[in-house]
């Protein structure tokens, strides 16, 4: 049985309520999820993420956008299951993500962090092999299948030519491709990325989003990406969730979310929004007079 079809071994991983109510067409369901950070349980929260809801299907890209410190990365951690919601729940194929066994979660959800520090020198193919860790056993070396999957992941992101290069000797754009390949080696259902275009030039940014769009369509990944790049979100996302101060203001297709008045309210600067021939929005700052 493939990793895509596995069921959790723990009954605790089953969703709260009746699993029969879950829509099989929906892969990811964020249902009234909230969270609060507090330095001391007796004190008022330092930050609160208000109840947030949206759904995503296989093959869809959801972009989470908004100013700094508005709750984007917190929401991503809640979706990943690394944080337990204060209220609500996150379901992946009908199972509560934070209740999944750690190993199962690693097989179903892959996270690409803002920064991926290199703990020791490694070649690209060795780095990608780390993505097979959720499938391994104690004191077990990688199998031939693991190596094939890792090399295939590099090929999927167009980085097979980097296979024998050391990670500290490749460019930022190349490194981000290899990091993405490590996530693909987990063979996930859900791919989460926290500002993956950070520190990349515009060419590398577009290249990365083109790759995500192709992979989502071809492999039916559900992709959730946190980004500050409004125009990349507008061009490549199926849905956009717009946040301000811990509140999700609107979720929907980019053209429905990227409204001038709403964006100016959120980002506190004059903006213009134009729709291209494809119906995709483009956000610009007006020319100085």
What does this structure look like?
The protein is an alpha/beta fold and 289 residues long. Helix content is 29%, strand content 23%. The longest helix is centred in the C-terminal third of the chain and has 18 residues, at 202-219.
Keywords:
29% helix; 289 residues; disordered N terminus; single chain; four-stranded antiparallel β-sheet; six-stranded mixed β-sheet
Described by its quaternary structure, the protein is single chain
Overall geometry? globular
Residues in helix, %: 25-40%
Work out the radius of gyration.
19 Å
Q: Which strands sit side by side, in order, in the main sheet?
A: 6-7-8-3-9-10
- Mean pLDDT reading: 89
Number of helices: 9
Major sheet characteristics: 6 strands, mixed
Supply the helix-strand structural class: alpha/beta
The fraction of residues assigned to DSSP E strands is 15-25%
- What distance lies between the first and last C-alpha atoms, to the nearest angstrom? 63 Å
List the helices and strands and how they pair.
Elements: E1 28-37, E2 47-56, E3 61-65, H1 72-80, E4 87-92, E5 95-96, H2 102-108, E6 109-112, H3 124-129, H4 144-156, H5 172-184, E7 190-194, H6 202-219, E8 222-226, H7 230-236, E9 239-244, E10 247-252, H8 254-257, H9 260-267, E11 272-275, E12 281-284
Compact overview of the structure:
The chain has 9 helices and 12 strands.
